Amino acid sequence: MLLGTQRVNDAGHLEIGGCDTVALAETYGTPLYVMDEAYLREICRRYRDGLARDYPNSTVAFAGKAFLNLAMCRIAHQEGLSLDVASGGELFTALRAGFPPSDIFFHGNYKTTAELEMALDAGVGRIVIDSVPEMDHLQAVAARQGVKPEVEVRVAPGVKPQTHTYIQTGQIDSKFGLGIETGCALEGIRHLSEPPDLAFRGIHCHIGSQLFGLTSFDVAARMMADFARELRDSLGLEVAEINLGGGLGVRYRSSDEPPSIEDYARTLTTALREECARHSLPEPRLIIEPGRGIVGEAGATLYTVGVIKEIPGVRTYVSVDGGMSDNPRPALYQAEYEVIAANRADQPPAQVVTLAGKHCECDTLIKDIDLPALQPGDILAVQTTGAYNYSMASNYNRFTRPAAVLVGGGEAQVIVERETYDDLVRQDRLPERLRAPS
């Protein structure tokens, strides 16, 4: 499975963005995150233009939790996207990158006082409220600062799509949002409409991630429009914005067949338009927040093969120089990937192996995959690692986190420096009583 600008060059090597991945590994080391800039920008434009074509009063906000750093903030802004952040750290990164605060949506089921103060000081465009206690908390902070932030309220429409349990987020039993079916959403927004320090703009939902069926999106859009009608009829409130979150799946395997971005956009806009017409509602601003859908397929991770261990009649383990510290998703979600032998990309499969990480766990990256005959020192490229790999990376076993490079037009540029061993101990402190005698 070749994605984006990937191709096999004359040397038989995998090439991304005009850069030979074997040369990238030699220059920057491994593990290495590689982001395909041309493909990344193409996907941004397809989301932006696909939504705007069917529904001009719309906004695409990149969900930064998928992959956020200074360079990604700049690319999102250059491509006309807004930004969804979910922590003080993500907000700080966006502001440091010069992202317009008015185009930022600030999410999270628990925003600390310090985070809310930062958001209000910066003048973020929307704060998405997740609960009634948070309404009261934000109101108090806003009153102290003498500002009136514009807010959306996250609701749980009760849609339970087919995806891994850990990334279902729109059902009633969830830490996120106020349930529509239980009446909590209506009562919560009634409570919100009373204080003078918050400006209600709309409602938000996110039903889950890595979704392949469009039915769940259709149902969610219709339920949100129906709830907007209920808010009008019961509270006299106009819902100026409906934010439907993200969730569209990407290709992790050749057999994966997610809907096209264009079909996804058409499903949302058709459902919303039909329901607004049925309820005699003015069409609200439509907002979506794709994260994985934008960066997932644009990323690959390069590894170097180390030990190859054959257990006769059982399995052959190919150990690489990374694992769950740079990609925890197989351990968390049983995520599956495909891999290309980057320096043998023109060779046919010759063996079935299991790709193993080098951490002190059952650190299995990919089970039972067909690859050419491998040798220590070979370079492997794991596909579709642009989302949640870099952002969820850790220092488990005191591993240093990998570098990330942006490739395009035959050039590579570092956008995240590789951590060093000195970085690992930079924040450590040794009490005086534990110091070795001089």
Walk me through this protein's architecture:
- This protein is an alpha/beta fold and 438 residues long.
- The chain has helices spanning 21-28, 37-54, 70-78, 88-96, 113-122, 132-145, 184-192, 215-235, 261-278, 292-295, 329-333, 421-425; strands at 7-8, 14-16, 19-20, 32-36, 58-63, 82-85, 104-106, 126-129, 150-156, 178-179, 199-204, 241-243, 285-288, 299-311, 315-320, 339-341, 351-356, 364-371, 379-383, 403-408, 411-416.
- It folds into 2 domains: 7-30 and 298-425, Lyase, Ornithine Decarboxylase, Chain A, domain 1, CATH 2.40.37.10; 37-294, TIM Barrel (Alpha-Beta Barrel).
- Strands 4, 14, 15, 16, 17, 18, 19, 20 and 21 form a 9-stranded mixed β-sheet that branches. It has an 8-stranded parallel barrel with strand order 5-6-7-8-9-11-12-13, surrounded by 6 helices.
- The termini are far apart.
- Residues 162-171 have low confidence and may be disordered.
Low-pLDDT parts are 162-171
Shape: globular
Spell out the CATH superfamily of the largest domain. Answer: Alanine racemase
N- to C-terminal distance:
59 Å
Key structural traits:
438 residues; alpha/beta; Lyase, Ornithine Decarboxylase, Chain A, domain 1; TIM Barrel; 8-stranded parallel β-barrel; 12 helices; 30% helix; globular
